[in-house]
Design brief:
By secondary structure, this protein is an alpha/beta fold. It has 17 helices and 12 strands. It folds into 4 domains: 181 residues, Ribonuclease H-like superfamily/Ribonuclease H (Nucleotidyltransferase, domain 5, 2-Layer Sandwich), CATH 3.30.420.10; 86 residues, no CATH class; 68 residues, Rossmann fold (3-Layer(aba) Sandwich); 52 residues, no CATH class. α6 packs across α7.
Length: 454
């Protein structure tokens, strides 16, 4: 269903049309069934153009509720995929599809469309995952991590609609801020029309404010599908034995071995512990949350973790919508430092770029809280990510060097005259006097011509 459009930097075909961001929730890790579908259409400049969201009844159990929060009872009255295909295609018509990982979305949607016996022309699509990888270096590229690094306010939660909204904002930020273009002009095919279907959107409570665990998983290097899923689950700061059992069943259905699952659990806990200890301050909250997750996963590497006395971990809030601000947020995450989402008493440094106005209220509030306020240009050094620049030794002015060399030449000439004169019978006293003048000229010229050490 989705045909990937290669991207490039400035110089390609600009994105002037609409994007439709698509996200889904499914029964498992591998292509199975869709249980929720959402799409958000935006113009390239970021203007909202419409959205849809609906639960989808696949006729089979919904899969891991701990991942998507959908129960069997919620799907009882939900429409089938065939009923929601028409509204989805109507919203997508004439636009470029966007998904964080189009290959995954395409696998599930193509499977559903194949079950209906429907044939569709390929729709051009782009990946916010690939786009983010091309412009910013991050420990992982989970949607939540990329959104945080780019300063996107939307937070992908359990619902497909929250994910689609975040992807839509990521697309407009990536294309607008980094000048990304299409390597070839997108071909927007005519789509068949289907009968208007029935939609059943679900209500989703606002996600809780992220705690330490949610921030820590953004700093974990994750290139494994199960590790990525596990990181998303533990981000809510709690993991029950039932959830661990459900995760293990999900991994088995995806063909993962028990050894792989056990190794991934150990990898996650080890990485979380390294993050907790990296700044030299392990808080009571960090120790408690890490021990709880380690116990639930059956990993013992956090049992001896103890809170440190005193101290305050470095916690950075970066304000701004420029490329420089994005790269600093990414650098903070890569360095294992806490990247704050809002200004609180736990923030130690606030960094602002040129897009932040001088009357921004958080600048004044940071000063009241005793938070160090930095410009984005000096922040890497101030935060200890880079050494202070070495000041080059100033060279002596050209005129000064030239004068010194002339004086050295005069000194050499005087010394030559003295030597010749001494052989010609010049009185000793006169020779000594002239020799002293020559030596003085030589030393003075050298001092002028050579820069003094600093």
């Amino acid at each position: 269903m989705i045909e990937s459009l290669p991207l490039r930097g400035p110089g390609g075909h600009p994105a002037h049309g609409d994007f439709t961001a698509v996200d889904i929730r499914t029964t498992g890790l591998r292509p199975g069934r869709v249980v929720e579908l959402a799409a958000v259409r935006v113009q390239a400049g970021g203007s909202f153009a419409g959205e849809l969201s609906t639960l989808v009844n696949p006729g089979v159990p919904p899969g891991p509720a701990l991942v998507h929060g959908i129960t069997r009872d919620e799907l009882a009255d939900a429409p089938s995929f065939g009923e929601v295909l028409g509204p989805l295609l109507d919203l997508c018509a004439g636009s470029v599809l966007v998904a964080h990982d189009p290959a995954v979305v395409d696998a599930f949607l193509s499977h559903e469309i194949g079950l209906l016996g429907v044939r569709l022309p390929p729709l051009p699509g782009v990946s916010t995952l690939a786009a983010a990888q091309s412009v910013v270096r991050l420990p992982n590229y989970r949607p939540a991590t990329v959104a945080h690094a780019l300063g996107v306010p939307a937070r992908p939660g359990q619902s497909a609609l929250s994910g689609a909204r975040a992807v839509a904002q990521l697309a407009t930020a990536l294309f607008g801020r980094y000048g990304l273009t299409f390597a070839a002009p997108p071909v927007l095919p005519a789509l068949p029309r289907f009968a208007d279907g029935r939609l059943l959107p679900r209500a989703e409570a606002l996600p809780a404010e992220p705690g330490w665990m949610a921030e820590a998983v953004e700093r974990i290097t994750a290139d494994d599908a199960y590790l990525d899923l596990l990181a998303g689950v533990v981000a809510d700061q709690h993991l029950s034995p039932d959830e661990v059992t459900a995760l293990a069943a999900l991994a088995r259905e995806a063909g993962l071995s028990e050894a792989h699952v056990r190794s991934t659990h150990e990898q996650l806990v080890t990485a979380l512990r390294e993050i907790a200890e990296r700044d030299g301050v392990v808080t009571a909250v960090e120790a408690r949350e890490l021990r709880q997750v380690a116990t639930a996963l059956g990993v013992g590497t956090a049992g001896d973790l103890r809170p440190a006395e005193g101290g305050k971990p470095t916690r950075v809030l970066v304000l701004g919508t420029t490329v420089e601000a994005d790269r600093l947020r990414a650098r903070v995450l890569a360095e294992g430092v806490q990247l704050a989402k809002k200004l609180t008493g736990s923030v130690t440094h606030l960094v602002a770029d040129a897009s932040v106005p001088p009357n921004e209220p958080r600048l004044a509030r940071a000063a009241e809280l005793g938070v160090a306020v930095l410009d984005v240009g000096v922040a890497p050094v101030a935060l200890g990510f880079e050494p202070p620049p070495v000041r080059p030794v100033a060279a002596a002015p050209t005129s000064k060097r030239l004068g010194g060399r002339v004086l050295m030449g005069v000194g050499l000439l005087v010394m030559f005259v003295v030597v010749v004169g001494m052989f010609g019978g010049t009185p000793l006293a006169g020779g000594i006097f002239l020799g002293a003048l020559g030596v003085g000229a030589l030393l003075g010229g050298w001092w002028l011509a050579e820069p003094a050490p600093r």
